[in-house]
Specification:
heterodimer, A: about 350 residues, alpha+beta, eight-stranded mixed beta sheet, four-stranded antiparallel beta sheet, 11 helices, about 20% strand, globular, B: about 325 residues, alpha/beta, 3 domains, six-stranded mixed beta sheet, three-stranded antiparallel beta sheet, 9 strands, about 35% helix
């Protein structure tokens, strides 16, 4: 275990940035999101970024290739596979777990070259949540906000006037070796106290004890035609707020942009809440908002576990709880199927 | 507030019982006091109807679909003063049917913003008790207090009116519009900027946009069956902002499209997950319309002819663009 004085955080960031690009939560125009660190950038310790950390591996818009046509000839230029060595600092345990979920989508065959390259070139530094909020329910999905080592390379804790640092993977060890000059050795006393303090808080979180017994890969028949969906989806605006702030939503659209200098093929996030999602020649496959709404939650709580060894594709970050314009969210869905018992 | 909540539930029950209405459009209780959801209720479900200082959402737009589906009887809707302007505007645009709706106007002294409460460092909120002037807030980290006026929804800080412009009956006590700031002060501040400063302001704000479409979908003036931005055949359909031009184009086109019809209900800014002050775009149009055509408030009167769709010999000439454009 190592530590650095909080007051010297910028030295730590400078050191990391010597050999790698560093990304961390930064407040800009009132909102906190992950951003590139440069000398002078201030780290923001807000509990949650508005958008999750998934953008780092799966950006909202990404160019895949360019075409140029000349008469009957077509020239295809594939975009370069990203090779930037990166470090993500200040990732919360919930977001770290979301990377595992995204991995099973993008890194299983056929592997997504762009995602995989970014993932392999990055080191994930998680930060324990010193003050979880009422919308947090990561415990339901097995995340430990006090010690989020499960899916990270380095775990850090803010305690007292120090930032504690512990490498928990080979990548993490290698990074620690690189930057050791700015760190000092420490015992684990203050971190153990902090972990115990956070664990006590998590017991008070009102949504953290929901039961998922109604959900799972074998529940399609039981849930698909359940009457609850009518009420739950009634006020849904069909916007993509929940989808776009969600760390595990991974659907995208591939489109061509026909510009003056040829055609660009890009992909961008899509949302199953949108009316033109997976639009086909015969029309959209889910004509009502109820169907679209049901799809989103069935995917996270039934279809995804069916195809991924029982793993749910929600991490309980609570962003949808905070951001939905009509305050409908996955916690209310879970509860309406008996999850509060 | 609690008194009004009691009145609302009582009245909903009475109007359902005597057959005046067949369903009720209101707000449903959530897990915390601030996470209420718009919902339709009947006799069986009316128990979960609530009213609190967090009922900022404007229910008028839900009536477009509900009126189409309503074959018999009326729908009771609870509307705050600002919401009644949207209701009137929808009547003007023939999007809803007055005969199918029973409007209960609810007096309002300004609704609260949980985000502003959290911005004060009050985290882990499980309950908020509104004492009228101050708030008692229960959190998992202990009890906190703050002033009501500090945490009003943005739209309520510049409340345009405490008048209910359409109703069948009214509940609650009429509030004074005492805290309201000048509605056009922020627009005037933007106008006073240099072109470069103004560009930088909007660039900073609009570059946060994630194209979730919440602003559009919540907007009572955005009631097209198929939005041009969702229509693949339009040539401008887009699901993301590919560049800085697109992020501005979407919002500016939307502001143009609702110009003269926007009642300034403020829902666009309330729902924006990135906190973009979208209402300022719309408000600029309102201010311009007021200055060029004389004061006009969309939704103040059902059936009114908006300046942009009306012709008079006193109308501003197109040359006004050149005269004003160089400022």
């Amino acid at each position: 275990m190592y530590y650095i004085e909080k007051a010297k955080l910028s030295e730590l960031f400078s050191k990391i940035a010597e050999n790698r690009s560093l990304y961390l939560p930064v407040k800009k125009n009132g909102q906190t999101n992950f951003a590139h660190w440069e000398e002078g950038t201030e780290y923001c310790d807000d509990l949650k970024t508005v958008k999750s950390a998934k953008d780092h591996f799966f950006p909202q818009t990404e160019s895949l290739m360019h075409f140029k046509t000349e008469g009957k000839k077509i020239q295809i230029n594939q975009d370069k596979i990203p090779d930037e060595k990166t470090v993500l600092f200040g990732v919360r345990g919930c977001d770290a777990k979301s990377f595992k979920i995204l991995d099973s989508v993008f890194m299983s065959e056929p592997q997504d070259a762009f995602y995989t390259a970014r993932r392999e070139n990055s080191v994930v530094i998680t930060t324990a949540c010193s003050s979880p909020d009422e919308a947090c329910f990561c415990g339901v999905f097995g995340v430990d906000p006090a010690d989020p080592k499960a899916d990270s390379d380095v775990v850090t804790w803010f305690a007292g006037d120090k930032l504690y640092w512990e490498a928990v993977s080979e990548k993490g060890e290698a990074l620690t070796e690189e930057i050791k000059d700015v760190l000092s050795s420490s015992d684990e006393k203050e971190v153990e106290e902090e972990k115990a303090r956070i664990s006590e808080i998590t017991k008070l979180l009102p949504l953290n004890n929901m039961s998922l017994s109604a959900f799972g890969g074998d529940k399609t028949d039981a849930l698909f035609n359940a009457p609850q969906w009518d009420k739950l989806s009634e006020a849904c605006l069909g916007c993509g707020s929940c989808t776009f702030v969600c760390p595990t939503c991974q659907c995208y659209d591939v489109r061509d942009y026909n510009g003056a200098n040829g055609i660009q093929r890009y992909r961008c996030w899509d949302s199953c809440m949108f009316s033109d999602f997976t639009m086909m020649a015969h029309g959209t496959n889910r004509p009502t908002q109820k169907q679209r709404f049901r799809q989103r939650f069935m995917h996270k709580l039934v279809y995804f576990p069916a195809n991924n060894n029982g793993e749910f594709s929600c991490v309980g970050c609570g962003r949808c709880v905070a951001r939905c314009p009509i305050s409908m969210n996955i916690a209310k869905v879970i509860k309406s199927f008996g999850g509060d018992k | 507030m609690q008194k009004t909540a009691g009145l609302i539930k009582k009245r909903a029950l009475e109007l359902l019982a005597d057959g005046t209405v067949t369903k009720v459009l209101g707000w449903e209780e959530g897990d915390f006091i601030y996470d209420v959801t718009p919902a339709f209720f009947d006799k069986e479900t009316i128990d979960s109807l609530v009213f609190s200082s967090f009922c900022g959402s404007n229910l008028s737009k839900y009536l477009i679909k509900a009126c189409k589906e309503q074959t018999e009887g009326k729908i009771l809707v609870f509307l705050k003063p600002c919401d009644t302007f949207s209701f009137n505007q929808l009547l003007t645009e023939h999007r809803i049917d007055r005969e199918k709706v029973y409007v209960v106007g609810v007096e309002c002294k300004g609704m609260l913003d949980i985000e502003k409460i959290k911005a004060l460092g009050i985290n882990g909120v499980t309950k908020v008790i509104d004492n009228g002037e101050s708030l008692n807030i229960k959190t998992i980290y202990g009890e906190k207090t703050c002033e009501r006026s500090e945490v009003l929804l943005e739209k309520c800080t510049t409340c345009k009116s405490k008048e209910l412009v359409v109703f069948d009956e009214v509940l609650g006590e009429k509030a004074e519009n005492e805290n309201s700031q000048d509605r056009f002060a922020q627009v005037a501040a933007l106008e006073a900027m240099t072109t470069e400063e103004r560009y930088a302001f909007w660039q900073g704000e609009l570059s946060k946009c994630i194209r979730c479409n919440a602003c559009r979908n919540v907007c009572p003036a955005c009631s097209c069956m198929k939005c041009v931005f969702d229509n693949i055949q339009s040539g401008v359909a887009s699901k993301s902002n590919a560049d800085t031009f697109e992020e501005k184009m979407f919002h500016i086109i939307r502001a143009f499209h609702v110009a003269g019809r926007c009642t300034d209900c403020g829902e666009c800014s309330r729902v924006c997950p990135q906190g973009i002050p979208l209402h300022l775009l719309n408000r600029k149009f309102i201010k311009d319309i007021n200055e060029l055509y004389g004061d006009y408030q969309a939704g103040e009167e059902a059936g009114s002819r908006a300046p942009l769709v009306n012709f008079t010999f006193d109308d501003a000439e197109p040359s006004v663009i050149h005269e004003r454009g160089n400022s």
